[in-house]
Amino acid sequence: MTTKTTTLNHLFDADMTVRSQEVKDAVTSPEGKVGKYMGGGDGEVTGQINGKMYWDLYEDMDGDVCLTNFAGKIETEDGATIRFDARGHGKVVNPERPNDWVMVYGVKFETGDEHYNWLNATLGVWEGEFSMETYKHNYRIYANRYD
């Protein structure tokens, strides 16, 4: 097996806000997700991909670590739909700031749009912060492009 060293490139930033904690408002199915449904929302995506994001959050606690699963879709400014499934962990790293969480995920994408089909062949890293005070999520997403 040949090992290839790769560097992740910035794909987009995501600024997300919780809009509902009602299961009836979910945009994804809970089937195959990690944890229980916690709520969902929307947000803006800016970078190599630009558009509106709609998402759901599933969580399960494991001691002081939160196992999390973001799933949803991005509707790009040029009319494409990109589905995503991000799975990872969250943790409060500063006990003096118990509402501030650091979050890290692996993310996969799926789209039928020809312009973005390269996303189907890549995995990415999704990292950032969540504030329980404001219910705002701020993330940076990185991936390699293989096409």
Q: How does this model look, in words?
A:
With 147 residues, this protein is mainly beta. It has a single domain (9-27, 37-143), classed as Porin. It is built from no helices and 8 strands. It has strands at 9-20, 36-47, 51-62, 65-76, 81-91, 100-111, 123-131, 136-143. It has an 8-stranded antiparallel beta barrel with strand order 1-2-3-4-5-6-7-8. It is globular and about 45 Å long. This is DUF3237 family protein. Pfam families: DUF3237.
Defining key terms:
147 residues, mainly beta, Porin, 8-stranded antiparallel beta barrel, globular
Structure summary:
With 147 residues, the protein is mainly β.
What are the segments in which pLDDT stays under 50 over at least 5 consecutive residues?
none
Q: Let me know the number of strands.
A: 8
Can you write the helix and strand succession as a string?
EEEEEEEE
Helical residue percent band? under 10%
Number of domains: 1
CATH classification, class level: Mainly Beta
**Which strand order does the major sheet show?**
1-2-3-4-5-6-7-8
Beta percentage is over 45%
Distance from first to last alpha carbon: 21 Å
What does the largest sheet look like?
A: 8 strands, antiparallel, barrel
Average pLDDT over all residues: 92
**Helix vs. strand class:** mainly beta
Radius of gyration: 15 Å
CATH topology: Porin
- CATH architecture field: Beta Barrel
The helix tally amounts to: 0
From the spread of the alpha carbons, the general shape counts as globular
Oligomer: single chain
